[in-house]
Amino acid sequence: MFYWLFKYVLLGPLLWVLGRPKVEGTENIPSEGGAILASNHQAVLDSFFLPLRVSRRITFLAKQEYFTGTGIKGAFQRWFFSVVGQVPIDRTGADAAQDALNAGLRVLEDGKLLGIYPEGTRSPDGRLYKGKTGLARMALESGAKVIPVAMIGTEKVNPIGSRVWRPAKVTIRIGKPIDFSRFEGMSGNRFVERAVTDEVMYALMKLSGQEYVDIYAATAKKMVPVAGGASATVSDAAPVSDAADVTRLPDTRAS
Fold this sequence. Notes:
By secondary structure, this protein is α/β, with parallel strands linked by helices. The chain contains 10 helices and 12 strands. The strands form 3 sheets. A 7-stranded mixed beta sheet has the order 1-8-7-2-5-3-4, with helices on both faces. A hairpin with a 2-residue loop joins strand 11 and strand 12. It is globular, with a radius of gyration of 18 Å.
């Protein structure tokens, strides 16, 4: 009940005013049955704008930190994410990947739409980063089709680090479902799972127009500039050359 209350009464109208969200390709979402909505991740509001323009309810896998905060803010976050039906996952423990996989498979087995962000975290600079293969394992084990979704402009409404939402045009592009049944029974094969994930990320790149960077977003967030124009991670003092470790696909641009 609260999901629809927030969508149509408490939060949805404000998002309509701020983002004037335009959607393309809603016909690509099935009217029933489980499916994976794999989206790029520009802002926290991605998880709000997408449900606003999709008629079916979407269940997202949400980081556990949203459910463990303290104080008034923590209590509100815990209540909000719980009542709108989001599923908490622990991204830090040794069994985190398996727990996230199990949670996603339960959603799909119930015939629901599962929303996930293959990059694993928000883009730090508007570019599209390497996808994690948990997406592929869910698709291969469940048999669900993967629907690529490009969120465009949400980072302008909700810039990283900002506390105030700003008016900006939002566009949502929903691509055609990708069927990976040709890889049936090959879950657990890391080469197949990487190929599946990369196919989805390529579709996202084409839909969003983002420049693609072949490292994980979490790694990029840890990288700091060093002398000479190279870069290094916070945990590793050895320089990391852009040319050696960052691959950009041609004919792409930064969002």
